[in-house]
Design a protein that fits this description.
about 475 residues, alpha+beta, Protein Transport Mog1p, Chain A, 7-stranded antiparallel beta sheet, globular, disordered N terminus, binds zinc ion
Length: about 475
């Protein structure tokens, strides 16, 4: 959890139909929205993405990615768009394009890149989605997808009514466009052309796809790569790219790969989840940055999202969400919450929690599907009022009230020095002093990640070979205190 953000679902006016020429195909298309509106939507959505997920605080890396993206975008059919390329502080392996050229890559995908040309191929592909106006036509179809929490519970529709789904992160309301396979094929082709025009070796596009494939295999069925969820993979992507390479005229030469240039940028970059934004030690949630901790009921499932920490009961019939409710004092923030239309306040308890100013109230909420019951708690700490909302069906509140109450009462200052000092794992670079296998490398230079991950992030198979003088990534640190 990073910060509280108010999330509004894009209420873009999608009914506007206009006639416009597609810059890539040259064809006249119906129902494309005017460019000015495209820019407006893109800018607004990009602002929400940044506010919700946050950017990596590394100015040099941001500039590097931005400069590279800008250079490639200049080669496209829409060089004059307000292009922007930013790195999100997100361990997920993903990249996406919002309308009008607002493009994001995650630090997660960056750690799997091995050359500037590979990154150029990712950016080129995303630029392709923008220039071919895939995102615009998606918006025309009003396909506003939301990233779901997997809260497949009966509570969801009722929570929506009170905006509790936003609190639970179930309706982040970000504009995540899902493209079709034809769009993907076209973006691959466009990205290939753009990177080539800029002088990058397009064979690196094939190796980038191979890495994403390996990543998908490593994470298995349980971990659908985030990239794949927004960019469904066309078949034979690697082979199609290599066929394109084979057709290049022999005059094409001197293409750049830029392995060391990219690697240098990744040195020291955080890898995986950043525990400074909160981490679980069993059922206890520690937040080193905001210096508090909280204990959820035993056997519940937890998720630490950028905007809230959410816990769901084992059978999915109850939920507890923790987020920041702003600077308002606990009582007035709490009064506001229980004064919402449709909510009836129950017993109010005004007593400090572990020495912190606090206010809590049981409540009932009437919905079409029946009654919900819960406990809303507000605790002041570190200049912020923290909100802990626990909800279940009205009939189950009595059974769960003890769990709800215990969770609220467990909120306390984090004082453990080790927990406060926790740091994320990070990428570090090693120059191989001789030829060796990935396995030998891992023994010589220990990493805090599995061998498959180490191989994949270096663009290799598990049995792959590292050559003398090659710069290799490894991951160190990130151990959580017991
Ligand atoms: Zn795509």
């Amino acid at each position: 959890m990073k910060q509280r953000t108010i999330l509004l679902v894009a209420a873009a006016s999608l009914a506007l139909a206009a006639c416009a020429t597609n810059p890539v195909t040259g064809k006249t298309e119906l129902s494309l929205i005017p460019e000015a509106q495209e820019i407006e939507i893109g800018r607004e959505e990009a602002g929400k993405v940044v506010a919700t997920i946050g950017l990596v605080q590394e100015p040099e890396l941001q500039k590097y990615v931005s400069d590279l993206g800008m250079a490639i975008a200049k080669e496209s059919e829409r060089p004059k768009l307000p292009w922007s390329f930013q790195v999100l502080d997100d361990p997920a392996v993903n990249a996406f394009a919002l309308p009008a050229g607002f493009i994001f890559v995650t630090r997660g995908i960056l750690t799997y890149m091995t050359s500037e040309a590979e990154l150029a191929s990712v950016l080129g592909h995303e630029i392709g989605h923008v220039t071919a106006k895939h995102s615009v036509s998606q918006i025309s179809k009003a396909q506003l997808a939301t990233i779901g929490l997997g809260l497949g519970t009966v509570l969801y529709p009722e929570m929506q009514k009170y905006g509790l789904d936003q609190l639970a992160g179930a309706g982040l309301g970000l504009l995540f466009l899902k493209f079709g396979r034809d769009d993907e094929r076209q973006s691959d082709k466009l990205g290939f052309d753009y990177m080539l025009r800029r002088g990058y070796d397009p064979r690196e596009m094939a190796s980038m796809f191979r890495t994403l494939e390996r990543y998908g295999t490593n994470t298995g069925a349980s971990g659908v790569p985030e990239w794949a969820s927004t960019h469904p993979a066309p078949e034979n992507r690697v082979a199609v790219t290599m066929e394109r390479v084979a057709k290049l005229p022999p005059t094409v030469s001197g293409l750049s790969i830029g392995r060391d240039a990219l690697m240098r940028q990744l040195d020291g970059l955080a890898f995986g989840e950043n525990p400074r934004h909160g981490y679980f030690a069993g059922r206890r949630f520690n937040h080193p940055e905001f210096e508090f901790m909280l204990e959820f009921p035993a056997n519940w499932k937890f998720q630490n999202r950028p905007d809230a920490v959410v816990a769901v009961s084992p059978n999915g019939d109850a939920m507890i969400a923790l987020d920041a409710a702003g600077k308002e004092a606990p009582r007035s923030a709490g009064e506001k919450f229980v004064s919402q239309q449709g909510i009836t306040r129950g017993t109010v308890i005004e007593e400090r929690i572990n020495g912190l100013d606090a206010w809590r109230s049981y409540f009932k909420a009437a919905t079409q599907q029946g009654e919900l019951g819960g406990l809303a708690s507000f605790v002041a700490h570190g200049g912020t009022t923290w909100r802990i909302v626990a909800v279940t069906s009205g009939a189950k509140l009595d059974t769960l009230a003890n769990d709800f109450n215990a969770t609220a009462l467990s909120f306390t200052r984090l004082t453990d020095a080790k927990a406060l000092a926790v740091q994320p794992a990070h990428v570090s670079l090693v120059r191989a002093d001789r030829d060796m296998t990935v396995d030998e490398f891992a023994q010589r230079y220990p990493s805090s990640i599995p061998l498959e991950t180490l191989a994949t992030m270096n663009g290799l198979d598990k049995g792959g070979k590292i050559l003398k003088g090659q710069v290799v990534k490894r991951v160190t640190g990130g151990e959580l205190p017991k």
